[in-house]
Here is the input.
Amino acid sequence: MEILNEMRLMFLSKSENEGFSRVTAAAFVSSLDPTVSELVEVKTAVSEAVSNAVIHGYDKTVGIITLEMRLFSDYSVEITVTDCGKGIADIEKAREPLFTTKSEEERSGMGFTVMESFMDTLEVESEPGKGTRVFMKKRLHPNHT
Here is the structure.
């Protein structure tokens, strides 16, 4: 499978950059002619991953978040969101629906669940004190109507 295009974007862990990352992801993946539903799913998954990095990874501090995307000839997209923040001590626990470490901030604890429901693949690698890498993959069905 051939790589058609790839990009890397680095930005500060500020909440306003969550929207920026969504728009960037949508614009980048649009060359594969996704359906409207697929476009919304990609944008939402990126938004959840970036929000997690801002809220949990950097926790009121400022660091760098990296968004990487690759488009492939089989109409699939790979998305990686990486931070160098706090990391996750227990990934399995963090992936449980409704689990949150920020209940006082009215967090739903559904970030990983949402990402998993919209993507074909979700992998999370993390080390406390070193950061987190979220890898997602989705096969698109181009909209040829």
